[in-house]
Structures are given as structure tokens and as C-alpha cells.
Amino acid sequence: DLGTEIIKSHYTTMGPKTAAKSTSTIWVAVTLIMAASLWGGRYAGSLPAEKGWRYPFSFHPFCMVLGVGLAVSGALVKKLGGYSNTKLHGMMSMAAFTSFILAFCAIYQAKELQNKSHYTSTHGQGGLFAFLSFFGVAAVGAFGLHPDFGKQKTNQTLRFAHKMASRATIGLSLFLCYTGLDKLTDDQFTMNAAGACFAFLAVLLWT
User: Fold this and answer.
1) pLDDT surpassing 60 at residue 177
2) Is the peptide bond before 48 cis (omega within 30 degrees of 0)?
3) What's the gap between Cα 130 and its chain centre?
4) What gap in Å lies between CA 194 and CA 200, rounded to an integer?
5) How far is residue 72's CA from residue 41's CA, in Å, rounded to a whole number?
6) What is the distance between the alpha carbons of residues 142 and 28, in angstroms, rounded to a whole number?
7) What does the pLDDT look like over 23-42, one tens digit per residue?
């Protein structure tokens, strides 16, 4: 149908060699991003070093970094176009949102255990906004733009708005991961390395 043709149109504008090269490059990038997200999330969760990994707080940075990795990877897979890649993009995005939910639950419980107020910092307020924004774009993607049953899957205006809103939300999440890490360490090398990684992911997302 028309929706499927639109989804597959990316491949029709590329020759087979270009498409194969693009596919392999993106899958290498996705593999590296996910490996780095798992390691980076585990490392962030163990900071500061004198406290180490602790329940439930450490699951907050771990799940946030993992979620961002999944979200960026899902966006890269979507750039490949095609029906199967579009569905995989949706599954990776929902996995990212699930990771964000776990991160939200972890920090909420950690604050409750310490009798601290919620959403009093700019970081916390930004996190809540990003969470609600991701919920919104995920709902539009899952129910409005799904390649099988989305009633708006051929709506180009909605597809463009979904893409831009998703990129902005993931970009905000990358920034929040950086500001969150800044609360956990004073090591400038760590902050510079993390900043470079997050900036690189943002470039991949927007190019």
C-alpha cells in the first residue's frame, strides 16, 4: 500500500552498493553505541568511586545512558528505511522508553528513601519534561505511524513532526545525561570524554 511504499522509498533513491554500504556502516555504529552505552551506564552508576554501585540509585544513570543509546540506535536504524527497519526502529524506541521508565522509578525510589523532594533541580525538571516528551512521541509512533495499522502513516506532516520532536527529545536526554554525570564526578577527563561522546551521538542523530 501507499504507506509501505513511502517507508521503502529510501532504498529506491540509492543504488544497491550504496545501500549495502550504508546498512553495514549503520549496523557497526549501532553495535558500538550499544556496547558503549552498557559500559558507560555501568561506569556512571558506580560513581562517585567512594560510594560505588548502590541500590536503587545506580540504576538511574545506568538505565538513562542505556535508554539514550537505544534511542539513538533506533533513530539510525530508521534512516535505513524499509518496512522491517521501521518496525525494528519502533521496537528499539519502546525498549529505550522502558529503560527510561526504569530510570525514573530508580531515582524516585532513591529520593523517597532519603526523604528528599522531587523535581527541585533543573536536571530533575528537565528529566521529567524529557520523559513526558518521549512518551508523547512514542505514542504517536506506535499508534499513529505504525507501518501495519497506523492510520496516519502516510501523513507526511505528522511524520516530519514526529522525527523532529524525537530528535529534540533525544538531544535533550543526551544533555541531561551529561549534567547528571557532572553531579557524580569532579574528574575533568571523564566529563570531557563523556561530553565528546554525547556530542558525537547528537551529530549522528541530526545528520
Assistant:
1) yes
2) yes
3) 11
4) 10
5) 15
6) 26
7) 889 999 999 999 999 999 99
Per the listing, cell 499513529 goes with: 144
Helices 188-206 and 156-182, interaxial angle, to 10°? 180
Axis-axis angle for helices 156-182, 16-45 (nearest 10)? 30
For the record, the C-alpha cell of 55 comes out as 541500590
Distance from C-alpha of 102 to C-alpha of 49, rounded to nearest angstrom: 23
Inter-CA distances, 204 with 45, 97, 99, 126, Å = 25, 20, 21, 22
Coil vs helix vs strand at 16: helix
Question: Which of 133, 148, 136, 138 shows the shortest CA–CA distance to 94?
Answer: 138
Longest dimension (CA), the chain: 59
Residue 107: is it exposed, middle or buried by C-beta count within 10 angstroms (0-12/13-18/19+)?
buried
Length of the chain: 207
Which residue matches cell numbers 549495502?
Answer: 20
